[in-house]
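Structure in, sequence out. Go:
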């Protein structure tokens, strides 16, 4: 146990911002907020501006580009559907509009990325028009917890870096992992990063957490909450809003991957579990690596990433009909708005393709006409398919054959790298 504590203490020192770095981010953010407030006032717009996210909560970790959440809280007299447009006119043309449940804006400033999010100034969570309207209450709740439990900030930093290293960090649909807010709530619940890992590692059934005390029991949560919000392996009731599962986006695949990481770290703790190696480094040791680059016609971010991931799954199924997939990986690069598929394949010399049931006489007749080597197996007509194409030739055939599918799945560019 001492070795684990030693590793965690060392990791905190590696990922935690030093005093000068934190002051610089706070300075830049303060100046940005001041300028935005001034422009809003000049336009006669009634709105408060506040810093949210990890910076407000003191849970920022070191990374190349720091993103800072800036919330513009509009007076309730405004139409919630129009506040994005109002904010866009104030920020100006240099800002990048990001489409979402409510459009928001990104403004680059050196090594910082300001994400400016319009929200409504509501009295309580029940009056929220959009999920982003809850952000103010999230910050308020967490700061209250920080006062009650010391050291939570560092424990959350560890959780975020660990989840990121395990490729399980992010609520985007192409990741289906842990959001930053969800990890904060989990650490508040368990009290420490280590206790959180142990709980996940030993979990056999679905985990239900209701720190807000909205429900009498976990059974009541499962009975009352909307079924669409109960698909995740962890049901994490947002303590600021009883009808929200803060981990609704977490899927079984990501949870199983994360659980394996938890077990592996607890059995053999080391710093490797906190390293942020990219997927290229993971696959570069394979001499027979194939890389496919995909571009969709969707906006960069969650939408394009999700479309790319959906196509990745379709592509894998097609590949598996002619090759043995030894290893595969998916990576979406938001800054370039491209996805890359990584494949390590083996030759599939021959496979049995099943056709119609022997009782489908017309189908059998056509199948036998198309395949002279057809035979009957377990009540179905089959044939043996030989696989003698290189992946490059197979890929050319795939692109030609699936043109309509590519169009339907919003793929506008597909090439071998």
């Amino acid at each position: 146990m001492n070795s684990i504590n030693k590793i965690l203490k060392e990791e905190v020192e590696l990922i935690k911002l030093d005093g000068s770095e934190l002051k610089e981010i706070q300075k830049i953010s303060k100046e940005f907020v001041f300028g935005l407030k001034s422009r809003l006032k000049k336009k006669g717009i009634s709105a408060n501006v506040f810093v949210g996210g990890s910076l407000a909560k003191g849970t920022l970790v070191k990374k190349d580009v720091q993103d800072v959440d800036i919330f513009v809280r509009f007076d309730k007299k405004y139409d919630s559907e129009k506040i994005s447009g109002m904010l866009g006119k104030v920020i100006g043309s240099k800002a990048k509009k990001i489409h979402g449940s409510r459009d928001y804006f990104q403004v680059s400033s050196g090594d910082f990325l300001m994400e400016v999010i319009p929200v409504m100034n509501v009295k309580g969570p029940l009056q929220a028009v959009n999920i982003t309207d809850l952000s103010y209450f999230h910050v308020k709740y967490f700061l209250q917890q920080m006062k009650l439990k010391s050291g939570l900030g560092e424990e959350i930093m560890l959780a975020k870096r660990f989840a990121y290293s395990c490729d399980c960090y992010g609520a985007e649909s192409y990741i289906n992992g842990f959001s930053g807010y969800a990890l904060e709530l989990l650490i508040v619940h368990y009290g420490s990063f280590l206790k959180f890992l142990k709980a996940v590692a030993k979990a056999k059934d679905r985990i239900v957490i209701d720190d807000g005390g909205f429900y009498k029991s976990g059974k009541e949560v499962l009975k009352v909450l909307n079924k669409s919000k109960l698909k995740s392996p962890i049901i994490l009731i947002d303590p600021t809003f009883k009808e929200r599962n803060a981990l609704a986006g977490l899927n079984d695949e990501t949870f199983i991957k994360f659980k394996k990481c938890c077990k592996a770290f607890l059995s053999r703790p080391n710093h490797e579990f906190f390293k942020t190696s990219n997927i290229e480094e993971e696959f570069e040791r394979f001499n027979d690596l194939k890389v496919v680059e995909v571009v969709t016609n969707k906006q960069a971010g969650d939408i394009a990433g999700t479309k790319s991931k959906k196509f990745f799954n379709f592509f894998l199924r097609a590949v598996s009909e002619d090759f043995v997939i030894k290893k595969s990986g998916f990576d979406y690069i938001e800054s370039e708005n491209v996805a890359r598929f990584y494949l390590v394949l083996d030759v599939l010399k021959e496979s049995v393709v099943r056709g119609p049931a022997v009782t489908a006489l017309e189908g059998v007749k056509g199948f036998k006409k198309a395949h002279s080597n057809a035979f009957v197996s377990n009540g179905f007509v089959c044939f043996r398919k030989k696989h003698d194409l290189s992946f490059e030739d197979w890929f050319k055939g795939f692109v030609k054959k699936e043109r309509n599918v590519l169009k339907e799945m919003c793929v506008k560019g597909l090439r071998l790298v």
